[in-house]
TrEMBL record:
Cofactor entry: Mn(2+); Mg(2+)
Gene Ontology terms, MF aspect: hydrolase activity, acting on acid anhydrides, in phosphorus-containing anhydrides; metal ion binding
InterPro entries: NUDIX_hydrolase-like_dom_sf (IPR015797), NUDIX_hydrolase_dom (IPR000086), NUDT19 (IPR039121)
Domain of life of the source: Bacteria
Organism of origin: Streptosporangium album
Nudix hydrolase domain location: 26-227
Designated name of the protein: 8-oxo-dGTP pyrophosphatase MutT (NUDIX family)
Keyword Magnesium: yes
Keyword tags: Hydrolase, Magnesium, Manganese, Metal-binding
Keyword Hydrolase: yes
PANTHER family noted in UniProt: ACYL-COENZYME A DIPHOSPHATASE NUDT19 (PTHR12318:SF0), TESTOSTERONE-REGULATED PROTEIN RP2 (PTHR12318)
Length: 275
């Protein structure tokens, strides 16, 4: 059985959780989007070293669901929240928040917006001072996603997203997320930009190259990111990724004791469920 050792305080916390002496922190709903462009490259951000969670790791755009992401006033096109809920085994309200968080966080962290003026269109360009002002207002939560879309006469395009997988942060962590992963293609005409914020570096990279860089110690990838890149590396085109038939599986790394030492297990033994 493989895994990552948990030394010191982490190991003691893990032991206490297994013994029932400490309650795990509840996991917050979150969404992550694997943004793809032709050549099957993915968009990765390196989280600043000062970040409390996943500092220095290369990650996909994403983040926690804002309570306002569940607002029924958000204009919507594509599969309904109920349909997304069936896919992710979540109630309709949670599913609405997950999809909205996926689109909102992608715009906040890459400048790419999966929305259009109609159910058949998508914004062609999101550069310019006015777009940047709105992006910053979304980040500092002075602007809700519903108001942002309404003011610009836009509808969220849930049909531009595809479900990919589901990861839950292990119970030993003090910051935990219940994260649904989506994939989406970079819309025609749009381009990513170095938007700053939680990231200090961004890159488009082929999944196989990112994995090689991680193996060589050039970059740090968390297990969900590493595994997702491994799943994507053999697809010949973005269309193939978007058209893939996925078995929706929930993964949560578990705490185990191996020869008196606490570990987080990171192999297929931690698969917690499949649809």
């Amino acid at each position: 059985m493989g895994g990552i050792p948990l030394p010191g305080e982490f190991g003691e916390r893990a032991r206490d959780i297994l013994a029932g002496r400490v309650e795990p922190v509840p996991a917050r709903d979150a969404a992550t989007v694997v943004l793809l462009r032709e050549g099957v490259e993915v968009y990765l951000l390196r989280r600043k070293a000062s970040m409390a969670f996943a500092a220095g790791a290369y990650v996909f755009p994403g983040g926690s669901v804002d309570p306002r992401d569940t607002d029924h006033a958000i204009s919507w096109a594509g599969p309904s929240p109920a349909e997304w809920g069936a896919v992710f085994r979540a109630d309709e309200r949670t599913a609405r928040g997950l999809v909205c968080a996926a689109v909102r966080e992608t715009f906040e962290e890459s400048g790419v917006l999966l929305a259009g003026t109609s159910p058949a269109s998508v914004v062609a360009d999101t550069t310019g001072d006015d777009w940047e002002a709105d992006r910053l207002a979304l980040i500092d939560r002075s602007l809700s996603f519903a108001d942002f879309l309404a003011r610009r006469g836009l509808v969220l395009r849930s049909d531009l997203l595809r479900p990919w997988t589901h990861w839950i942060t292990p119970e030993v962590e003090r910051r935990r997320f219940d994260t649904r992963f989506f994939v989406a293609a970079l819309p025609p005409g749009q381009r990513t930009r170095d938007v700053g914020g939680e990231a200090d570096q961004v890159a488009w990279v082929r999944p196989a190259d990112a994995i090689d860089q991680a193996k060589n110690g050039q970059i740090f990838l968390m297990p969900p990111t590493y595994r997702t890149l491994g799943e994507l590396r053999d697809y010949p085109s973005v269309a193939d990724v978007l058209g893939a038939e996925r078995e929706m599986v929930t993964f949560m790394p578990v705490i185990v004791e191996v020869d008196g030492e606490m570990h987080i297990v990171l192999d297929d033994d931690y698969r917690s469920g499949a649809a």
